[in-house]
Amino acid sequence: MTAAHGACDTTIRDLAVSVYTVPTEQPEADGTLQWSQTTLVVVEPRAGDLTGLGWSYATGACATLIEDVLREVVVGSDALDVPAVWEAMIRHCRNLGRPGIVSMAVAAVDIALWDLKAKLLDLPLCRLLGQVRTDVPVYGSGGFTSYDEQTLTRQLSGWVHELGIPRVKIKIGESWGSEPGRDLTRIAVARQTIGDDAELYVDANGGYTRGQAVRMAHAMAGQRVSWFEEPVSSDDLPALADIRREIEPDVAAGEYGYDLHYFQRMCAARAVDCLQADLTRCAGITDWLRAAAVAASHGLQVSAHCAPNLHAHPAASIPNLRHLEYFHDHARIENQLFDGALNPAGGDLRPDQGRPGLGLTLDRTAAEPYRRR
Ligand SMILES: [Mg+2]
Question: Considering its fold, how many domains does the chain have in total?
Fold first, then answer.
């Protein structure tokens, strides 16, 4: 059957998948993980003479899953009925398990379908979803534990003093024992670098125990840290809730949320002051918008996790947005591989009102050296 919008055929005819792996500038690490490269799984569905674009920061296994399992569900569907295609994909993966790779594979397709639908309707995605705001506040995120002091100060200074971003986040969680660790020194360096006015956030990536996290919060009180992300594992909801009651900074978590039940449990446990959600993990824009509704039902704001150019349009459309994480690795890759990447100067991303969809084009020449399949 052929679907149509006006004179335009909206039936999805094809679904191209490619994988790119981009090395980091130097080895990077947080409190609990080290890495030296980042992989994107890029999806391009076609309807009529238009092509959608979406991706997930994941693993090449997602590309296999999309080709072997999801393609048969997506091709032949109507590109205007994104929630129907999303539902069909989720059902089709029932026996594979929803969290993790499945959810990231569905995410890449779902994002590309929203981009395609907006292009078919010749609207910027933020206008298709409906805007609450034109400017999306961001915070600069990096400050890896693997950086030396010069690299750390250069990065933070660039965001705050050159780009005018009034909030930044560094990684901690690598050291805390009987002696105050390197974490405290780096927090002090960060505060000194950004000055008194910018907000300072820290992310332990689950690197502390409950007691360590509370002691750390008290020890860093003089640096006016206002956001303490994943002080302990985000799976330990009772510990997050306990820590929240005992410390001054906001507690945030949620980046490993793959479905609505996860977000619901985290909110209901009163484990966070602000819910993080990542649309490249939680099965795309379709469920990210619902995650924002779950947060709203608990009186919470949402912070969009990483992938800044994918989150900018959806983030412009939810009422309870706090901000978007302008993550160094992803910002660097998106600026390098995509035409139309947004500029955070002044502390906001402003979705381009003059370009349809996400407003992005894959620069195939720039991307080709990193292509794996
Ligand atoms: Mg984090």
Answer: 2
